[in-house]
Design goal:
Strand content: 25-35%
Number of helices: 3
Shape: globular
Oligomer: single chain
Distance between the termini: 38 Å
Strand order of the largest sheet: 2-3-1-4-5
Number of strands: 5
Largest sheet: 5 strands, mixed
Structural class: alpha/beta
Radius of gyration: 13 Å
Helix content: 25-40%
Order of helices and strands: EEEHEHEH
């Protein structure tokens, strides 16, 4: 059985309704989806779950606090993982917790 996974990244101007793409492989279908802010990231996570996603990885722009918001927004059986940067290169080398 294939793993249905998602990846949410933060990008200025991203629209989670339109800015996503799924890559299909023999073992994993990975849907990458953009969100312009944390509120939209929560909506994106809920959308991914509605599409059958079982595991969601968050980009390094998510700080500890906002990762918890995503975890709270989805059912407990959805695995949440995080790419970690001490300071994110796409966010002027700051944590998303500092910026948002």
């Amino acid at each position: 059985m294939k793993l249905e996974a998602g990846f949410i990244f933060l990008a200025d101007g991203a629209d989670f309704i339109h800015d996503y793409k799924t890559v299909h492989t023999d073992t994993v279908n990975l849907t990458a989806i953009g969100a312009k802010n944390y509120d939209d990231a929560v909506k994106a996570a809920k959308f991914l779950v509605s599409q059958g996603i079982k595991a969601i990885e968050l980009c390094g722009g998510f700080g500890i606090l906002r990762t918890a918001k995503i975890k709270e927004a989805v059912p407990n059986e959805i695995a949440i993982g995080v790419v970690r940067f001490d300071n994110h290169p796409g966010l002027d080398f700051q944590s998303g917790d500092q910026l948002f």
